[in-house]
Design brief:
The complex is a heterodimer of chains A (365) and B (369).
Chain A lengths: L1 H4 L4 H14 L4 E7 H9 L2 H5 L3 E8 L1 H4 L2 H11 L4 E5 L13 H6 L3 E4 L3 H10 L4 E8 L4 H13 L5 E8 L1 H10 L7 E5 H7 L2 H10 L3 E4 L3 H17 L4 E3 L11 H10 E8 L3 E10 L8 H4 L15 H5 L31 H14 L1
Parallel strand pairs in A: 1-2, 1-7, 3-4, 3-5, 5-6, 7-8, 8-9
Antiparallel strand pairs in A: 6-11, 10-11
Helix pairs in contact in A: 2-13, 3-17, 8-9, 9-14, 10-12
Chain B lengths: L21 H4 L22 H15 L11 E5 L2 E10 L5 E2 L2 E2 H14 L3 E13 L4 H18 L3 E9 L7 E11 L15 E4 L5 H9 L17 H10 L3 E5 L5 H13 L2 E5 L7 H10 L13 E4 L4 H9 L8 E7 L6 E4 L5 E3 L13
Parallel strand pairs in B: 5-6, 10-13
Antiparallel strand pairs in B: 1-2, 2-7, 3-4, 5-7, 8-11, 8-12, 9-11, 10-12, 13-14
Helix pairs in contact in B: 3-4, 3-6, 6-9
Classes of the chains: A alpha/beta (365), B alpha+beta (369).
């Protein structure tokens, strides 16, 4: 872990923050897309370091947050079946569906397991041939290769009892939606480094050309984010709008070709609904017909389910960067991580949870 | 379809639903989550859900002046002698892990709960719930380990009980231990005694136990040399209490880790706390494992560490006393108690900014002890 220390170095971080404050002639509005980045910004109090030089708004990059309510309800209905073992990343367990969550389904006898890797779910299916193992595959471009590999692995092993409930979303279409909104205030974006590690930077070039907005691919440590913020501020002050790469230790322009090929083999792009935001064209991945046997939605014939969000939850406004979590009347009172109204308060990557967990004291001041 | 910025709930067209989902069709009306009508794993986390259980179920029914103190041990008086009594059940999975097992853990855990009350542990009991089919060799290993731990600590196990349940009704082996000790004269420790200005100390590296357990868990294959820190802390406490009379509270940060313990003390004393992130001792390997697993060492369990709140003038003497003992050689002063933000633990980060260290809502990792 020593290699991380230089990206958490207080002196470097403070130097970068000072440079941002010095260079910035107006409070630029910047958005980090990824919830992991939001988490770092809040955990390290980077907003405190930047003062008024930059206003940070938080993007829709929390996969747990944007997974549609009806998809969660589908997972819940699967988990409640006696013949199904539902396997999920831990964060999904507490996300409220329409009227329960996976923790409660588990307490009522549902077989719900937590894994860190989808290949563990494949192993589980292999070791329990009499049970249907469904992996709840949520995420951005980042997790898609591992999910594709899990499907390919299950195919190779000839497993008949392994499926995935897939809910993948793609970052560039979301940025396009944000920028197309008449209410958009965001002047520069930090693109998520791990997503670009997989898909490369090409797609962001189109956005930069079309909307004349600077985009910097950034990492996840405090120094990464401060450097990305500095690069954005420099571009904005110089009137430039380009794609730049801060996260050079991981991201290459073309991305990771074998990962892209695995994804392309199993998935195809599709329209997708985002929780709190609504449908965004060609913003998700769906399992190709050739792999329908591994698609839980088709295997279990999960139909369309309609569901509404609690009226008080402003998660849509938060996910679009129009409002901050603390603008919500329910923040920290009727909506807390123990009793969340919306997904951004649940996930460790959710903006509301990050504010609640790390910044409540600053709000109270 | 044009890009949409529709911010309201979007209703997708209704299609016929299969049998599997017909129940869900009725869900179109948003209902709040039902009241917690069942026990969730999080109720055992030592965090907020556990506190709810205490306040909603246990205290209304069982509350009395001794129990209501909600310390790690009860302190009762018998003919002028103050006795400490505590009980703890152990359900750790797996039963054996790097540097320890459920048996030694069950001995250490109860001794530590007595020690945190300033008591010298005198006797232990041990009760076993065994699952039908448990290999005899497993039980033998656990019991020998208990014997060794108790002998090393100088605290005999003087009574016990055994129950066997059907296969599937328990996970191998659960142990309960109860302990009785004698509270040191002139010592009165409580989580409610922290005062602004007090120093906050920990006795060594945090998070070892939780990571050692995780390393053994199914499906989490990572290599680590981290061992559990499971240890009996009564001699360390004795050294500390010999050195200074100014110790206000002692706690062992087990489930829920340092953050839960500090939040409990800050709530019980109605004070705030300010920690210094760079002063908190965490091993490189533990930091690395936490990084990989998305955990925060502040929340990871310890089984051989204590947190001490000590009046500021005595802080250095307390630190030195801890460091002179093998179990406290990596002790550190990690922060102080403050008037500001009562009932809130705030950390000065490595960047010099501040953030909250909150109590966990749910559970990072169940069945860690």
């Amino acid at each position: 872990m020593k290699y991380l220390d230089e990206y958490r170095d207080a002196k470097i971080a403070r130097g970068l923050a000072a440079e941002v404050r010095r260079r910035s002639t107006r409070p630029w509005v910047l958005m980090e897309i990824c919830g992991g980045q939001t988490h770092t910004l809040m955990r390290y109090g980077i907003d405190e370091l930047l003062g008024n030089a930059v206003e940070l708004v938080h993007g829709p990059g929390c996969p747990v947050c944007v997974t549609p309510l009806e998809t969660i309800d589908r997972a819940l209905s699967l988990a409640a079946r006696r013949d199904v073992t539902l396997v999920s990343y831990g964060d999904m367990l507490r996300v409220p569906g329409s009227n329960t969550d996976l923790f409660h389904v588990k307490a009522e006898g549902g077989d719900v397991r937590v894994v860190y890797s989808p290949t563990d779910a494949v192993q589980l299916a292999r070791s329990q041939p009499d049970r249907n193992v469904v992996f709840f595959a949520v995420g951005f471009e980042t997790t898609a290769p591992a999910h594709a590999m899990a499907v390919l692995q299950a195919e190779r092993l000839g497993l008949k009892n392994f499926t995935i409930l897939a809910s993948h979303v793609l970052v560039p279409p979301a940025i396009r939606t944000l920028l197309s909104s008449p209410r958009n205030r965001v002047q520069g974006f930090i693109a998520p480094g791990h997503v670009c590690t997989v898909v490369g930077m090409r797609e962001y070039e189109d956005l930069v050309r079309e909307f004349r907005v600077p985009i910097v691919v950034g990492g996840f440590e405090p120094v990464d984010l401060l450097e990305a913020i500095r690069m954005l501020v420099v571009q904005l002050e110089e009137g430039r709008a380009e794609v730049e790469n801060q996260y050079v230790r991981s991201v290459q322009y073309e991305g990771n070709k074998p990962a892209q090929q695995a994804v392309a083999r199993v998935f195809e792009t599709a329209d997708r609904k985002w929780r709190g935001i609504g449908p965004i064209p060609v913003s998700g991945l769906r399992i190709r017909d050739e792999y329908a046997a591994f698609d839980a939605e088709r295997v279990f014939q999960l139909g369309c389910v309609c569901a509404d969000e609690p009226a008080e939850c402003i998660s849509a406004e938060v996910l679009l960067g129009h409002k901050k979590p603390t603008d919500c009347t329910a923040f920290g009172t009727r909506c807390t991580p123990e009793k969340p109204l919306g997904a951004p308060m649940v996930s460790s990557e959710g903006a509301c949870a990050a504010y609640y967990q790390y910044r409540r004291h600053a709000v109270a001041r | 379809m044009p890009p949409t910025t529709n911010t309201g709930a979007t209703r997708l067209p209704v299609e016929p639903v299969s049998d599997d989902t017909k129940d869900l069709a009725a869900f179109s009306c948003p209902l709040p989550l039902p009241a917690r009508d069942r026990i969730l794993l999080g109720h055992g986390s030592g965090g907020k859900l556990s506190a709810e259980l205490l306040n909603d179920i246990f205290l209304p029914a069982l509350g009395n002046p001794v129990l209501n103190r909600l310390e790690d041990q009860a302190i009762v008086s018998l003919n002028g002698t103050r006795l400490a009594m505590t009980t703890d059940s152990f359900v750790v999975k797996p039963l054996f892990f790097r540097g320890g097992d459920i048996g030694s853990l069950a001995v250490h855990g109860t001794i530590n709960d007595l020690a945190m009350g300033g008591a010298e542990p005198l006797w232990l009991s041990a009760a076993f719930i065994l699952e039908e089919g448990l290999p005899m060799e497993t039980l033998r290993r656990v019991v020998i380990s208990m014997h060794q731990a108790a002998a090393n600590a100088g605290v005999p196990i003087v009574t016990g009980d055994t129950k066997v349940v059907e296969k599937g009704s328990a996970d191998g082996l659960f142990i309960n231990t109860t302990g009785i000790g004698r509270v040191r004269d002139g010592v009165s420790l409580s989580a409610s005694q922290a005062q602004p200005g007090d120093a906050i100390l920990v006795s060594g590296f945090l998070g070892d136990h939780g990571i050692a357990i995780l390393a053994e868990r199914e499906g989490l294959q990572f290599e680590t040399r981290v061992q559990t820190d499971s240890a009996a802390l009564h001699s360390l406490v004795a050294r500390l209490l010999d050195a200074t009379q100014e110790v206000r509270s002692l706690r062992d940060p087990t489930r829920g880790g340092l953050s839960s313990t500090l939040n409990e003390i800050s709530a019980a004393s109605n004070v705030g706390m300010e920690l210094n992130e760079t002063a908190i001792p965490v091993r490189e390997e533990v930091r690395g494992a936490c990084e990989m697993l998305g955990l925060d060492p502040m929340y990871v369990a310890n089984e051989g560490k204590l947190v001490a709140v000590v009046a500021a003038p005595a802080a250095q003497a307390a630190l030195q006393a801890l460091r002179e003992h093998p179990l406290g050689k990596d002790a550190a002063i990690i922060g102080h108690v403050t008037h500001d933000h009562p009932r809130m633990v705030v950390m000065r980060t490595s960047l010099g900014t501040t953030r909250i260290v909150d109590m966990l809502a749910g559970d990072q990792l169940p069945r860690i002890c």
